Structure formats: structure tokens, C-alpha cells
Amino acid sequence: MPLPLGEAVMNALFMMLVVFMVLVILMILIRVFTSIIAAVVPSSKPTNAGGKDVRNK
Amino acid sequence: MNFGESLLKLLNESGFTAMTWQNGVMILVSCLLIYLAIGRKFEPLLLLPIAFGMLLSNLPLAGLMVSESADGHTNGGLLYYLYMGVKKGIYPSLIFMGVGAMTDFGPLIANPSSLLLGASAQFGIAIAFVVASVMGFTPQEAASISIVGGADGPTAIYLTNFLAPHLLAPIAIAAYSYMALIPLIQPPIMRLLTSEKERKIKMEQLRVVSKVEKICFPVIVTILCVLFLPSVAPLIGMLMLGNLFRESGVVERLSDTAQNALMNIVVIFLGVTVGATANGETFLQPQTLGIIALGLLAFMFSTVGGMLFGKLMCVLTHGRVNPLIGSAGVSAVPMAARVSQIEGMKANPGNYLLMHAMGPNVAGVIGSAVAAGILKALFG
Predict the structure, then answer these.
(1) How close A51 comes to chain B (CA, Å)?
(2) In 3D, which of B123, B169, B132, B155 has the Cα closest to residue B26?
(3) Which one of B281, B296, B347, B357 has the lowest number of neighbouring Cβ atoms within 10 Å?
(4) What is the pLDDT of residue A57?
């Protein structure tokens, strides 16, 4: 039994919303964790090719 | 028994007498796919086993896909047993482990906002789902068809197997065909949605990502994604396990096996058995054409979604993001990123977008797996 148009649209919007929500949270967590890792493990500070710290530009 | 009777008996027991017109058409289709794989090199690693599996299952009386009898006295066909890996969702997850072992998530860690492009490039899934529902497909079928927009073969097979296994063959063939056609499908859309000035934008070099970050990344992603959506655990879990093998640097043998030997074995089993599901009676239906058209629609709108979000990021960052990298959010690694690079270089020969496009590209793998998990949770 196919979904009515309205319900199909709502399901599609819900799917996109959750995809965005999960990936936005992941994005924030990556930023937070990379900052923490850089603070806790000095040798892991992200550097550019010249070896200069580029995190707090 | 004389010679004539023996010959007649042999002929009656041969496959010729059991051949239907559907078998004949499917044998021709499989020969065409074999030509495309070998002659045109369209995703040959998967298309060739798929085409040969299709050929084998359409040769009458061979019985390669015949199931085991209920009492267990009669054995099933060879491909029937191999198909259990697809039916139980094992092969797509193992392929994801190989993909994880081959993928460098560095560009994504260096630029986490790439994840937004990976999310927006799932737009085609939403559009195709609505259109498929309007066309009369059930929610399970619509979800399976629309996932082609994620441009991820294993994810499409994984979800379809759970929601609409009877559509497995056309969906898998559509997914891999469109992935092979990325260099033809995406560039016109990319040029249509961007100006010459936007395509010429040079992006700043990405920072170098430390080893500790690369090791922590798969662990963090696994915890977050699986806690949010437990249904994505088989795909995301295996993807990140493979990546941890790669980045840890202490299990090189396992990483090598996941990338090469295991991946190749699973690709053979997956390809042949998915092809073997393309039986003439079930494949040659009017809805197969609908699935192929909807797959293309999903793919095109996913590209549009990524491009439009790329343009938005271009505006918000005052022209520091080239919108061409948005189209790479459709997952197909690394083909989509290469297309962004090629289009960027056409506009400006000194424009190197490959590493910038790899961020959205690998984000698309995560995004399509998350989308599949949501659809499985909603309609499974």
C-alpha cells in the first residue's frame, strides 16, 4: 500500500532532518575532540607542511 | 533404445526445451553487461560478476539458485548458499570494512564542515522517495529505490535486502550503473548550477591531521552514530573498524587483508549472487524501468542538493569554498571527488580541489549509511 503524498513528504523531510542532525552533531564533536586531543597530546598538534601550529590562527 | 530415441531423451532433458523468452532476453542483457564491463570498463569489478551471475541464473535447469528442500534431503544450488551472505546482510558490511581500510578520513577531520555537504547530498533520496510513493510503490520499495541516490552500492544492497528483497537485482544494477556514469551525469548539473567565477575559486590548503586524531575519529563516529541510530551499526561499525585497522598502524596484516583479499572475495560473492537474483520472470517487469528512472532522478537530485549547499557555503564564507566540491557529497568514492577536481581544473588549470572534495565524498559514505539506517528504522 503506497503512502499518501503528504505522509511521504513528511517521512522524507524527517529523514533529511535526522541525517543533518546526526552529521551536525558529529561535526561539532570532531571539532571539540580535535581541540581536546591537541591540548592533551602536544605532539598531535595539527600543523601545516612547515610544522607551524595552525589551529588557533 | 536406438540412437534417435537417445538423442531425443537427451534433448528433452537439456536446458533448450525449458528455455523461456524471459530467459533469452536476460541472457542477452547479461551479454550486454559483460560487454559494458569489459569493452567499456563500466565498474568492471562489480558489473562483470553481476552480469555472469545473471547469465548463470537464467540458464534453465542449472538450478544454481534453487533453495534447499524443507526436509533438508535435497541440497540447494551453489549460488543459493553463497546468496545467504547477501540475505543475512553480511557482504555489504564486509565491503564497508574494506572501504574503511582504504579510506583516508584526514580531509574530513581537517574540515569537519564537509559533513554538511555529505548530508545535503542525500537530498535525492528524499525526492525519489516521494516520487516513488506517488508512483504507487510501497514505503519499503520506495525507500529501497530512493537509496540509489546515496550513490553507494553496498548500502543500497543492504537496505533493499531488508526492505524489498524482490527488487534487489534492478536496484543493485541501477546503483552500480549510475556510479559508473558519474563522469557523464554530474558535470552538466555542476556547470548549470555554478558560474565561471565560482568554479575558478581556489581553496586554501587543508591542515595536516595528526595520527592521534585519525585514530580517535573512527571510535568517536562509531559511538555517536550507533548510539543515535543502532540500525546503522553493521555498516558504520564495519566501516570504522576497517579505518581503525588502517590508522592504528599496528595491524597492517589485517588492514591489508580487509583492503585486498577479503574485499575481493566478498565482491565476487556479492556480485555473482546479486546478478543471480535477476531472474527473467521477476526482472522483466514494467516496474524495473520505473526503478531505473527513479534511480537516475535520485542521483541527479543528490548532486543538486550537494551543489546548492556548496553554493550556500561559498556565500557564507565570502567565496572561500568552491561549490564544485558539493557534488562530491554523493558518496561514490573517489569518482565523485575526481569529477569535482576535473571540473575545477577546466575552469582554472591551477585549481586543485581533489583533497577538498574528498571531505564531502567520505562524509557522503557516512551520510548515506545514516540515511539507510533511518529508512530501515522507519519501514523495516
Answers:
(1) 9
(2) B169
(3) B281
(4) 43
Q: Which residues of B189-220 are buried (b: 16+ CB within 10 A; e: fewer)?
A: bbeebbeeebbebebeebbbbbebbbbbbbeb
- Condensed to tens digits (0 to 9), the pLDDT of residues B105-117 reads 999 999 999 999 9
Task: Tell me which chain A residues have a C-beta less than 8 angstroms from the C-beta of B133.
Answer: 2-3, 5, 8
Q: What ipTM was estimated for this complex?
A: 0.85
Cα-Cα-Cα-Cα torsion A5, B173, B239, B163, nearest 10 degrees, comes to 40
Rounded Cα distance between B130 and B301, Å, is 12
Judge: B139–A11 Cβ closer than 8 Å, yes or no: yes
CB contact under 8 A, B109 and A34: yes
In angstroms, rounded to a whole number, what is the distance separating the alpha carbons of residues B117 and B353? 15
Cβ distance A22 to B225 less than 8 Å, yes or no, reads: yes
> Do the beta carbons of residue B268 and residue B94 sit within 8 Å?
no
Tens of pLDDT, residues A8-30: 999 999 999 999 999 999 999 98
Let me know if B348 is exposed, middle or buried by CB neighbors in 10 A (0-12, 13-18, 19+).
middle
Distance CA(B346)–CA(B173), nearest Å, equals: 31
Nearest CA-CA distance, residue A50 and chain B, Å: 10
Low-confidence residues of chain B, pLDDT below 50? none
